[in-house]
Design brief:
Length: 87
């Protein structure tokens, strides 16, 4: 999926979908430090791939717990992909 910001297109890769409205996205042209976004249902939460903790935003506690558990279980693969896109 692509979103346009001025003349720059940002590519988002959805890594996981859950509860019919939330997704975890890794964005190709994003800032450091390594992180993913929990989006959907009116939330945009940033989750650190290094500490597996919320660094920005808010979401219902159970949604955050589920997202953090998935990120923790897939942390190595997510970091590997982040490094691929952000060399």
């Amino acid at each position: 999926m692509y979103r346009q910001f001025g003349d720059i297109f940002e590519c988002m890769s959805t890594k996981h979908r859950f509860r019919d409205k939330y997704r975890i996205e890794l964005r190709e042209r994003d800032h450091l430090p390594p992180h993913v976004h929990l989006t959907g249902g009116g939330v945009d939460v940033v989750i650190s791939l290094e500490s597996v903790a919320v660094t920005q935003g808010k979401a219902p506690a159970k949604v955050v717990q589920e997202a953090l558990a998935w990120v923790a279980a897939n942390q190595a693969d997510l970091l590997k992909e982040w490094m691929k896109w952000h060399r």
